[in-house]
Design a protein that fits this description.
This protein is an all-alpha fold. Helix content is 89%, strand content 0%.
Length: 211
């Protein structure tokens, strides 16, 4: 295997290892720190930029390997169709080896490109999930605080209603007392008037204190 296909294999192996790390059942705090490092680190950003350029070359290798596989397959078919019933073992072995290498290179580069897409999509899905969990936790805290505030407001409202009822009862008693006071004053005035009329008719003076 040539150098660039060896590097492609190493890249595929590193992608597989990275994918296993991403989908591993890590604790939430560890996963949060890990993905924050991946998404905010300038070193990771530079590595990702270099990998994008690398995947362009891998794509070129994939197209070249695909063309070679088609060409070898076509040459093998032509050799079989044009044969006169006698086959050369060395030629057949050569065609089989070339076909095997072409298919191997095609699958290697193809899986490398495919896994890069899967890895990128998985990373952003998990990152969105972490952000959603953070927003949910924040919303839960806000909701709990709002609930406690609403409970306190309800208790204050009940206390205010009770105080209003007590105040209304006190005002009603005060009005009753004022009414009784007015009635007592009116009765006193009426009693004085009647006593005065009685005394004027009988010709005697009325002592209010004795009366």
């Amino acid at each position: 295997m040539t150098v660039y296909y060896t590097l492609t294999f190493l890249l595929l192996a590193s992608e597989m290892a990275t994918f296993c790390v991403l989908v591993a059942p890590l604790p939430y705090a560890v996963r949060k720190r890990l993905f924050r490092f991946f998404s905010e680190s300038p070193i990771i950003a530079k590595i990702a930029y270099g990998l994008k350029i690398t995947f362009i070359f891998v794509g070129i290798l994939f197209v070249d390997a695909l063309q070679r596989m088609w060409r070898v397959t076509a040459e093998a078919d032509i050799a079989k169709n044009s044969g006169n019933g006698m086959h050369d073992v060395r030629a057949d072995t050569n065609f089989a080896a070339r076909k095997f290498y072409a298919q191997r290179n095609t699958y290697l580069t193809g899986f490398c490109l495919f896994l890069s897409l899967v890895l990128t999509r998985t990373f952003y899905i998990i990152l969105d999930l972490i952000h959603t969990q953070e927003e949910y936790a924040k919303l839960k805290q806000d909701t709990a605080g709002t609930s406690r505030t609403n409970i306190a407001v309800d208790e204050q409202t009940k206390q205010i209603e009770e105080l209003k009822k007590k105040l209304a009862a006190s005002e009603a008693k005060t009005r009753d007392y004022d009414i009784l006071k007015k009635q007592a004053a009116q009765n006193g005035v009426e009693y004085d008037r009647l006593a005065t009329e009685y005394n004027s008719k009988t010709g005697s003076l009325s002592d209010k204190r004795k009366d």
